[in-house]
Structures are given as structure tokens and as C-alpha cells.
Specification:
With about 425 residues, the chain is of the alpha/beta class. The chain has 16 helices and twelve strands.
Length: about 425
């Protein structure tokens, strides 16, 4: 079972590299194989929504981290095997490429060496002590003992093969038993992902989340931070049925968007069963995660930014109306319209969200007056990121506090930058 999400959320959380900026994927990508990288990307695009599957994956990665396991297969062998195997596939022009005698011989020898390495790992590697991988281990041991692959197993790595033997092995590996060979490679790619993510967890001191059953409606995060920041400020936040909505306020530059990304990224990664950038995280498994941080105008349907926001809220309403448990985040709800409509819309929609107590909602807003009106709902919590004034210079703690702030320092920043003076005289005073 996979977690429901969408491209907007993937873009908001910057999961993948864009232009010259790396994504969250790049932080976790320590894979040794191209196949491992592709599998890791698939996991990023398909988080889990099953408690047992999440817990099992987290336990596997944690076990490899505890054992300080190093990827046990030679990258050079894998490179040779992958290049060798892929040449049997159809290229874009519909014609098969033909490998030379030397390339075939190198590929066959590389696969023989890799096959023996997999056998060694399955029989006596770190996987032996990991209970959650015994099904995969048993399946691989059975495949290695398959009568059709016994010629590979009997041949010792490094032996010089005759032309006839190379030809026979080539037909066996790339044609007759190609599915079994692919299964061996897929096993290696899975181990690559687990071991590489385990190394990232150790190197970065990431924590393994604790998953709770669906509808238990708990989200407890301690010391969460954004993993891309060099000097992050960690924050704590707890949500539950009695506080299923959090209304976040704070001035511009106070760190709201960074906190929202850090928090929602941790929730998303936790559903992958991966370690997260926090000191502690426990969560109830959700059906879906949807964020709205940087919502573009939908020019394809002639939609303004405000109408795009309305459509986004409508989508959330449909998902919630179907009885799904969701984690929903809106940064500056209805920023695309005038203050009066934004105020009324924020209050009305937040009230409606508060009635969906099997889901969790995180909503930020500049409209602090809306927060005052929302206090009548007992399951709405209020937090803010403060601004401290040092004379005329605003300073930011980036540390979450309870309550609602009326910090508004936009004009102070504008004056500090000398914009009005520049417009009036053409230059800023020293």
C-alpha cells in the first residue's frame, strides 16, 4: 500500500534536484549502483501507507546501520554486468546492438564473479542476522541453487574460459535464464538502497521514526530540522486528535516556510521507513500527504493564483470527503486574493478542516485576526515564529513558540533597505 501524494507536494518539498539545486533525494542517495539509484527514486515517489511495511523497512535499515555494513559487491563487476546485460535490450532504432567477443567475455566473467559474491553475502553476510530480510534471503539462496544456474556456480571466478564456454554462458545468462539474472540484480539493488541509506543515517545522526496504526492520530516531533541547512535550528511540535489543526503565524523572514518544509519533509520521509532529520519522531500512518507551499498559477486552464488555490482546497475536500486520513499543509492559505476574502476564506476553511479529526492540518497565515476567531475551536493549536527588534533591526530566533504573533515588520525592512530614499533621490543615504 502506497501513500497518496502528488507532484505539487513533491515540488514543494524539493525532493528531487532542480536546475543547479540538489533535492532531498540527493542527501539519501549514497548508492553504489545505477539500479540502486533508480530503486531509491521509486521509493521516494511511492512512500508507504502500511504500518508493518514501514516498520519492517526501518528495522532493516537500522540493522545495517548498527552493523556498519559496507556494500559487499564490487562496483566494477556491477558496471560490467549491467553494461553487458543491457545490450540484449532493444535500443530506440529497433535494432539489437551486437557485443564483440571481448565484451561478451568480460561480461560473462563479471557475472560469474558477482554471482559468487551474492552467494557469499546470502550465506554469511550481514543479511543473515536481519530477521526482516529472511524471506528475501531464502528466495535468493533458492535461486542460487536453481539447477539451471549451477554451471555458473560451479565455475570459479577468475578462471580462463574457452570460446565455447563463453558462448554457452552468454546464451545462459542473457537469453535462457535472463529473468533469474534480473532477479539477482534486483536483490543487489535492494541491498544497495538499504545499506546506503543506513550509512547516511549514521553519518548524519538521523533518527528512525516510530509508526503507529492508522487513525491513532498522533504526530510527535522533537528537534526536527531541514537536512539541507548547514546550521539548522531544531523545533518541536506535537499534534493529535485534540490538536488536529495547527495555525502558524509569523512575520516575513521569520522562518515559517523553512519550518513547514522541515516538518512536512520529515513526515513524508517517515512514511518511506527512512531515518529523518530529527531527534525523535513518532506518527500515525496516514492515507496521504498533500502540501501547498509554492502553488503556481494554472495558465493551462486560465486559472489565477487564487482560483488555483480554490481548486487545491477543493481537491483536499474531495479526498477528506472520501473518509481518508490525510496530512495537509497550506502555507499562506488564499494569498492570491484580497485581505478581506483571504481572512474570511481562511477562517471558514480552517473551521471545516477542524471538523475532520482523523486528519492533521498545518496552516500558516499572515492574517493574525483569523487566528483570534479560530480560538473557539478546542482542537486548533496556535504557534508562531517570533521576531525580536534590536533597535530598528529585526532579529529572528527561528524557534517555535505557542500563541499568535502580531509581528509586522515589512515597512521596517523596506525603510532599512532605503527603498523610499532611492525612489525619491536616486540613491540610498549612507
Amino acid at each position: 500500500m502506497f501513500l497518496q501524494t502528488d507532484d505539487q507536494t513533491i515540488e514543494d518539498l524539493r525532493l528531487f534536484a532542480k536546475r543547479e539545486s540538489n533535492g532531498i533525494y540527493d542527501i539519501y542517495n549514497n548508492a553504489s549502483t545505477r539500479g540502486g539509484e533508480l530503486l531509491l527514486e521509486k521509493m521516494f515517489r511511492q512512500p508507504l501507507s502500511d504500518k508493518d511495511a514501514i516498520t519492517e523497512r526501518a528495522s532493516v535499515i537500522a540493522a545495517f546501520a548498527k552493523a556498519k555494513t559496507i556494500f559487499p559487491f564490487e562496483s566494477s563487476l556491477l558496471d560490467s554486468v549491467e553494461k553487458y546485460i543491457v545490450h540484449n535490450e532493444e535500443p530506440g532504432n529497433g535494432q539489437k546492438t551486437v557485443l564483440g567477443e571481448k565484451e561478451v567475455s568480460s561480461g560473462v566473467n563479471a557475472f560469474i564473479g558477482l554471482f559468487h559474491s551474492v552467494k557469499s553475502f546470502a550465506e554469511q553476510g550481514a543479511i543473515v542476522g536481519i530477521e526482516e530480510l529472511q524471506k528475501e534471503r531464502s528466495a535468493m539462496l533458492a535461486l542460487l541453487q536453481d539447477p539451471a544456474l549451477q554451471p555458473v556456480l560451479k565455475e570459479q571466478p577468475g578462471n580462463r574460459l574457452s570460446y565455447g564456454a563463453v558462448t554457452a554462458f552468454d546464451i545462459l545468462i542473457r537469453v535462457k535464464e535472463r529473468e533469474k539474472v534480473t532477479a539477482v540484480l534486483n536483490f543487489i539493488y535492494l541491498m544497495d538502497v538499504f545499506i546506503s541509506v543506513a550509512r547516511v543515517a549514521t553519518a548524519r545522526n538521523f533518527v528512525f521514526p516510530v509508526a503507529h496504526p492508522r487513525a491513532s492520530n498522533i504526530l510527535k516531533v522533537r528537534g526536527v530540522y531541514h537536512p539541507e541547512l548547514k546550521e539548522p535550528v531544531p523545533n518541536d511540535l506535537t499534534m493529535h486528535a485534540g490538536k488536529s489543526v495547527v495555525f502558524l503565524t509569523g512575520a516575513n523572514m521569520a522562518g515559517k516556510s523553512t519550518f513547514l518544509r522541515a516538518f512536512s519533509t520529515a513526515v513524508y520521509i517517515a512514511h518511506m521507513g527512512f531515518p529523518v532529520a530529527a531527534r525523535h519522531l513518532e506518527f500515525s500512518v496516514m492515507d496521504g500527504i498533500y502540501t501547498t507551499i509554492n502553488l503556481p498559477d494554472n495558465l493551462g486552464i486560465g486559472a489565477s493564483h487564487f482560483y488555483a488555490e480554490v481548486l487545491r482546497v477543493k481537491k483536499m475536500a474531495a479526498e477528506l470527503g472520501a473518509g481518508k486520513s490525510l496530512f495537509v499543509l497550506f502555507d499562506e492559505l488564499f494569498r492570491g486574493t484580497n485581505v478581506k476574502d483571504a481572512h474570511e476564506g481562511t477562517v471558514t476553511i480552517t473551521h471545516a478542516f477542524a471538523g475532520k479529526k482523523t486528519s492533521l492540518f498545518l496552516i500558516s497565515s499572515h492574517i493574525v485576526e483569523a487566528g483570534e476567531e479560530l480560538k473557539q475551536r478546542s482542537n486548533i493549536g496556535f504557534h508562531y515564529l517570533p521576531t525580536r527588534m534590536n533597535g530598528t533591526v529585526p532579529e529572528y530566533t527561528y524557534t517555535l513558540e505557542e500563541g499568535i504573533t502580531d509581528d509586522r515588520h515589512g515597512m521596517i525592512i523596506i525603510r532599512n533597505e532605503g527603498i523610499l530614499e532611492t525612489l525619491a533621490t536616486g540613491k540610498k543615504k549612507g
